[in-house]
Amino acid sequence: MNLDEMNLQQVEERLAALDVEVREATEAEAVEKAAEEKKGLLTRKAELVDLEQRKKTALELNEGKAPEKIIEARKEEKNMDIEKMLDRSSEEYRSAWLKNLQGKELNEVEKRALAGGTSALPEATANKVVEILVDTVPLLNEIELFRMPGSINIAVEVTAPGAKVEPAGGAATESNAVLRQVTLAGYNMNAFIRLGADLAQQAVSAFEDWLTRKLADAIGNKIEDLIVNGDGTSGPKGIEKYVTTWDVSDGTGVAWTGSSGAALDVANLDAAIGLLPAKYDRDSKFVMSKKTFYTNVANLTDVNNLPVVEREGRNFYVRGYPVVFSNYVTAGTIFFGDFKRGMVGNLSSDIKVEKQRNLAYNAWDFLGWAVFDCAPAAAGCIVKVAAGIQS
User: What pTM does this model have?
Assistant: First the structure.
């Protein structure tokens, strides 16, 4: 049916159908075609609404009524609808942003979508990066992770308020928790990626998959390293610096001595489990490298010669506690604790990418970056098992 022949109901039904088509579209051409059609439909809708309003006004004038002044309000609603349609959450912005990175020509709608800037990732693309990050960096899912722009301050309990027994109906005695403030700043995690000029011309969806995977791999490796080993000097502070000194005497450490010299013994793991307060028990896990696990832990048995390691599919449990692997934990070191309470981090909600042409290699160079920080939170949540821990 021609656009000029459509009535208001038919226009609205087609607009609703187009929204579904755009959400399900996998090709940029389909999104472009839908955007152009939607633009025409919105124009037709405005004409029909205006026509209906003029008819209504004419009838009111015939009946001696004063017409309502709604023209300015309707114009405002139309502008808001178009502005919302082209923000970072829209398919139009996503298509325009990816095509712009590839150096492809943009149509008028796509140029308008990028009028506010081209560095910020579309929301759907940024969410894909974060999903891959969580899959490739398991520790991101184990700490208390925020997704907020800029620096943030988090209040952490040092001493929890104690409950008191008091007469019913009487005045309650105030009991305040002792808090300390953890400030998470922002440090750039930069990823430099090079792509051959010919590969940059691949389909938009394939290019997005490649870009998100490369960004997540590059940024994720550095974030995981910092969660474990960050020293807090002009950067994030990781699990290794959870306490100033790991010490057997204050209950933060267990010496890796075992029953036969340097070999790990079940008693060392049991000691670490016993040091952690029961209130952290439900969410506690072991964190170690795969090398440490398969070299020192996998074949351990208790006094009854029963294995202390259980396996369910690809997941392992030591004494019933899940095991999380990280290649950035030093071989011969094991951490045990509730990392959700013991560590906090912030991965800025804005992940950005910029590009430049590299003629020397006939390629495109992409610079992607995310802002991240992490730091220890509540005390007494993490215990370290390792050789040479201070007694």
Answer: 0.69
Cα 302 to Cα 218: distance, rounded to the nearest angstrom:
41
- In this structure, what token pair is assigned to residue 35? 């955007």
3-state secondary structure of 221: helix
- DSSP assignment of 33-55: HHHHHHHHHHHHHHHHHHHHHHH
Contact 223, 189 (CB under 8 A): yes
Q: What is the DSSP letter of 27?
A: S
Fold of 119-161+176-391: phage-related protein like fold (3.90.1690)
Place of tokens 């919105």: 42
- Site of tokens 């006004």: 57
- Region for residue 189 given its phi and psi (left: phi exceeds 0; alpha: psi -120 to 50; beta: otherwise): beta
Q: Which residues have a Cβ under 8 Å from the Cβ of 337 and sit 6 or more positions away? A: 276, 280, 284, 285, 381, 382, 383
| 156 vs 137: CA distance, rounded Å | 25
CA dihedral 312, 317, 322, 327 (to 10 degrees): -100
Question: What is d(CA 33, CA 184) in angstroms, rounded to the nearest whole number?
Answer: 44
Long-range contacts: 353-360, Cβ < 8 Å, 24+? 353/101, 353/119, 353/121, 353/211, 353/215, 354/119, 355/101, 358/194
Query: Would you kindly state where each structural domain of the chain is located, as residue ranges?
Result: 3-113, 119-161+176-391
Q: With contact defined as beta carbons under 8 Å apart, do 142 and 341 qualify? A: no
Confirm if 222 and 362 have CB atoms less than 8 A apart.
no
364: left (phi over 0), alpha (psi -120 to 50) or beta: beta
pLDDT per residue rounded down to tens, the chain (391 residues) = 677 777 888 878 888 887 777 677 667 677 677 777 877 778 878 887 877 777 777 666 556 554 555 444 444 444 444 454 567 778 888 888 888 888 788 888 888 878 766 667 788 888 888 888 878 888 988 999 888 887 888 877 665 556 667 777 667 766 666 677 888 888 888 888 887 777 667 788 888 888 888 888 888 889 999 999 999 998 999 999 999 999 998 889 998 875 444 578 899 999 999 999 999 999 999 999 999 999 999 999 988 999 999 999 989 999 999 999 999 999 999 999 999 999 999 987 667 788 788 888 888 788 888 889 999 998 899 999 998 887 6
